[in-house]
Amino acid sequence: MKTTLIFSVLFAVLFLFAFEQTPAQEKDLFEGGTVWSLTFVRTVANKTDDYLKGLAQTWAASMEEAKSEGLIVDYKILQGNAVNKDDFNLVLMIENKNMAVFDPNEQREAAFDAIQKKVQEKMGEKEFDSTVTNYDNIRDLQGTKIMREIHLKK
User: Fold this and answer.
1) pTM attached to this predicted model
2) Angle ∠(29,32,34) on CA atoms, nearest 5
3) Which three-class secondary structure state does DSSP give residue 151?
4) H or E element, residue 138
5) Is 6 within a domain?
């Protein structure tokens, strides 16, 4: 009985030391920053300018309003050459405060719906619908990603 108790205590002590963190493990390599939603787009040949004109009236106008209302931190568009026929040439980026903004939130969704309605009314409902409908003819969505910005520690 005494031997079993000694082995149990010895095993418990060894178990605790095996999982003890070293100072190097305690130090994080980076600090988390804002969270980016990235949408990868491939435009049809010779239609990039048409797509960007439409985005300026719809997407960018919505993003400006969302930014002014504090719903997003910032937004950007990156443009580059596609490396092959299946690659994207535009990245639409939306910077968010944190991951929590992706949780279901009726109030946030209602705010974005109101922004879309405002942009739609300003542009004219027919022109807005025509522009957004035309997106299907001049671009192909390649996918989306959510990525956190990180800041390396020294």
Assistant:
1) 0.80
2) 155
3) strand
4) helix 125-138
5) no
